[in-house]
Amino acid sequence: MQTIAEITQVANQGPFAPNWSSLGRFSMPEWFVKAKFGIFVHWGLYSIPAYNNEWYSRNMYLKGHPEFDHHVATYGPQKEFGYKDFIPMFTATAFDAQEWMKVFKKAGAQYVFPVAEHHDGFQMYQSSLSTWNAAERGPKKDILAELKQAAEDQSLHFCTSSHRAEHWFFMGHGKEFPSDVVEPLQKGDFYWPAMPEPDNQDLYSEPYPTEEFLDDWLLRTCELVDKYQPELLYFDWWIQHEAFKQHLQLFAAYYYNRGVEWGKQVAICYKHDALMFGTGIVEIERGKFAEPQPFYWQTDTAIARNSWCYTTTLDYKSSSEIIRDLIEAVSKNGNMLLNVGPDGQGKIHDKDQEILADIGAWLTMNGAAIYESKPWRIAGEGPTTITAGQFQENKVTQYTSQDFRFTIQGDSLYAMQMISPMDGHACIQSLSLSSDQNLPAFHGIIQNVALVGHPQQNLDWQATHDGLSINFAPIETDKPIVFKITMK
Length: 488
What we know:
Order of helices and strands: HHHEHHHEHEEHHEHEEEHEHEEEEEEEE
CATH architecture of the largest domain: Alpha-Beta Barrel
Number of strands: 17
CATH class of the largest domain: Alpha Beta
Strand order of the largest sheet: 1-2-4-5-6-7-8-9
Distance between the termini: 58 Å
Shape: globular
Strand content: 15-25%
Number of helices: 12
Number of domains: 2
Structural class: alpha/beta
CATH topology of the largest domain: TIM Barrel
Mean pLDDT: 96
Low-confidence stretches: none
Helix content: 25-40%
C-alpha cells in the first residue's frame, strides 16, 4: 500500500505534475475515440434488496422515504437489521465473469466499466485499507480481478469507477434515530464517517470533508489503480466540492504518470467540472449534447430508465431507443457508456441480455458507421430537436423518417435514417447540389450509394438540388437504417 508521501512523489515525478497547467497536457486515448460503445456495471450490496434503485443504503435510513418503510416491513427495524446485514446474503452464486464478458462482447461493446466501490462503501475488490470488501466478506472473491481477467480474455478494454467521495455523508441519516449506524465510528469502519448530509449542490457546503477522509479517499483510489491498472477511471458526482480539488490534482498526476509507466493510454471521466476542462473526459449523465462538440465526450446512461442497479421494477428502454442514443452521441463526437445491473446473485437477466443482443446484431451489420468513425461537418438533419443537458431521458424522443445523423469513415459518408420509411424513400437535404460555390452546400461527387446490410437492394438514387434522393424496397424494422455514400 502506498503512503501519502509516496503518492506525492509519484505525482511529481513527471511527465505530469499535480496542477491544472501540467495536467492540461493530457491527450485523449486513441483507443477510446475509436471504441464508441462501452458497458457500465452497477452490482453490489444494493442489488440484494433490489428495491427502487442503487441508493438503498442511504434511503433505508431516511425516515419518510419508501425504502425506509420497505426495509422495516421486509427485514425489520434498522437497529436489528442494518445495511451491513445484507453482506452474508451477497454470496454471488450466479456470478460468472467470463459469461458476463461474452454477453458484453456480443452486444458490440469495446470496453467495460464495473463499479469498484459505490456510495455505500463496500469494495468489490481486495483491499488492504478495509476488511469491508468482497474478497473478505460476502462472495469472498476479488470480483474486480475476475472481471479484469475476463475482459482481457475477450479483448475488451478494462476500466472501473469509484463513487467513494459521497460516502462522506451517505450513511449519515442512520444517526438520526436508533439504528446500527452508531458512534463511535472510526476510519476503517463500514459506515464511517456517516456525516450529516450537506447541500450537494453547494460547492463549499458544510460539514466540510476532513483531511483524514480526503487522504483515505486518495489512498483507496490509488490502491485501485495500482492493483488493477484500469485504462479509464470514472468519478461520480460530489468530487466537484472544493475540498477535493487538491487531492484530485494529486490523484490525476499520480494516475497519469502511472499510465506512462505502464505504457497505457489512460484517462479520468468526470462530471460537473470536477476537473479542469481539458484534463480528462467530460461526462453527461443520462443526457447528451444537442450539437456536435469540438471536444470528445461521453454520455453515461442505463438500460433502464429508473435505476442503475437491478430491481424488481425496472423500466426498460427498447434496444431501438438505445441505438438511436448511441448514434446521437457518435455523430456529435462522443461515446456512449450503457449500464447493466445484474441481480443480487450475479445473473444478467434475460431482458437485459435480449436488449444487449439486439444492439449487438445492429452493430454487427452497421458497425462501420459507428466504430472508428468521425463526425461529419454537420451532425444531422430533420425536424426532431434534442434537448441538451443531463437527466433528459424521461420521455422517448420521437423521430421521423426525415431525421438523419451522419458520420464519416474512409471514402464514405454514413447517413443513418432514424426511422425506416414505409414508402422506401429517403431524401438527404444536406447533400443537395448547388451551382453557387459560395453557398455552404455539398459540392462533392457521389460515386455510389448502398444500403448497409442489404446487398441485394439495387438502389435508385440521384443527386438533385433538393437533396440526395434514394428509392429502395422498404425495410420493415424499428431500428435506424444506414446508407453508405461513397465519394470520388
